[in-house]
Amino acid sequence: MAKLTDTLQRLTGDRRATVDTVTAAPTPLQPIDLTDDAVVAEVLDLAVRVGEVLLASGTGAMDTAEQVQFIAATYGLAQCDVDVTYNSIVLSAYRGPTLPPASTMRIVHYRSMDFTRLAAVDRLTRRIRREAVTPSEAHEALTAVTTAPHPYNRWIATLAWSSMAASISVLMGGGVLVASVAFLTTMVIYRVNRVLNRVGLPFFFQQVAGGLVAATPAATLYTFQDQLGVEVRPSQIIAAGVVVLLSGLSLVGSVQDAITGAPITAAARFFEVVMMTGGIIAGVAISLRVTGLFGSTLPPVNVEINELTQLPVLVMSGAFASMFYALACYAEQRALTAAWMGGAAGSLVYMVAHQFGVGPIIGSALAATVVGFAGGLMARRALTPPLVVAVAGITPLLPGLSLYRGLYALLNNEVVIGLSSLLAAFGIGCALAAGVTLGEWLARTLRRPRILRYTENIRRPVIKTRRRKPVETPGAA
């Protein structure tokens, strides 16, 4: 019994792993003069700028608030109130009974899935915790991170998005032809949306354009498949394009905010997800209507149950889809392997659960929990935020096919089937986000790596060496 209790305490208890939550220091590592307004303002600006990068990258509101509060507390502003909403960060610091409080505010005007920048800011935050970094030095390091160019060329990102769509089409049962068409279609979607974004078109209409491009080649190829002597399923091509468009939305962040106690931010993010998804549906619907006027009629969406004999191919497809998504979001090279493993684990669990007939929603929740849990552990080893692995890992499981099935049914006056499929897609999306949140919580609760030890609540590496026994020399006295 004592051994069991000791084992549980080693796994849980106060031995919490800082996966993406920073451990608070008991005293300031680099205290500042609280009577100096300029220095206090510099610290507050540093804290909200760090929060800006986190919030723009899709980090949850509560995690962003903890990071902002930690930066301020590190420099002596321990009593702070942080308010993080959908696109703003407000920070107010209490400096004592004889000094007025100091406050600042920052508006996040952009959304950027730049995983390299997110990882660099995460490392900077941990460096501020471990070392006596002055506010000016931290400002210079943060400016260097935020102004640095992307680590990969734009064309590499384009090829990564296209390869991701090809992998997803294979995951849905497509062959070489379907994967090739999905690859080329996604390349056109990405380049067209780049041009539309450059001219300032709202993101909703970019999603409409993406849905329009995703459906048109599939419908055209299906119409002339007899003349070309090929056999193609347009639903696999369209669903792959829809998944690519869905992958850039902050679904995980919205549900995570709702679960962790930030309902206002969750409602704003979720409404954005709904609106952008509506843009995709509108674009696909317009394409199907226009091609229908020219006599192109798509077949019903048939769902086939993949056999276990196809499991290796499907798992590899999901793994590469996750890796290509991480590459498209400019993840670091060491994070690509973690994303690949997360995608493989999620696809494997989902396929096995599907064979046991648990349903797509429960299967998605189980797979996402495994992705969140494994992502937290692997991200700890790869020194990258778990958000990178979690978002990339669930990307192959996004309900692109359910959305297309519901839209197809509604366009053919099958209202009940259409609404059921759309609600199923909604349930799958929520299950994925909730599962990732639960998996990350489990990863945070587990014991930290053995190579790390606490020194006054601050984590530093400790290397243990074995003492060698002295060798006795023959004839020695």
Helix content: 55-70%
Overall pLDDT: 79
The spatial strand order of the largest sheet comes to 1-2-3
Distance between the termini: 51 Å
Number of domains: 2
Largest sheet: 3 strands, antiparallel
How would you classify the helix and strand content by structural class?
mainly alpha
Care to count the β-strands? 5
Q: Which strand-content bin applies to the residues?
A: 5-15%
Spans with pLDDT under 50 lasting ≥5 residues?
A: 8-26, 449-468
Listing every helix as H and every strand as E from the N terminus to the C terminus, the arrangement reads HHHEEEHHHHHHHHHHHHHHHEE
| Alpha plus pi helix count | 18
Shape: elongated
Instruction: From the alpha carbons, calculate the radius of gyration and give it in angstroms.
Output: 25 Å
Protein name: Amino acid export carrier protein
GO molecular function: transmembrane transporter activity
Subcellular location: Cell membrane
Domain Threonine/Serine exporter ThrE: 319-439
Write the layout of secondary structure elements.
Blueprint: H1 2-11, H2 37-56, H3 61-74, E1 80-84, E2 88-93, E3 102-107, H4 115-130, H5 135-147, H6 154-171, H7 176-198, H8 203-223, H9 225-228, H10 234-247, H11 251-260, H12 263-293, H13 311-328, H14 333-355, H15 360-382, H16 386-394, H17 400-411, H18 415-445, E4 452-455, E5 458-461
Antiparallel strand pairs: 1-2, 2-3, 4-5
Helix pairs in contact: 2-3, 2-5, 4-5, 6-7, 6-10, 6-13, 7-8, 7-10, 8-10, 8-12, 10-12, 10-17, 11-12, 11-18, 13-14, 13-16, 14-15, 14-16, 15-16, 15-18, 17-18
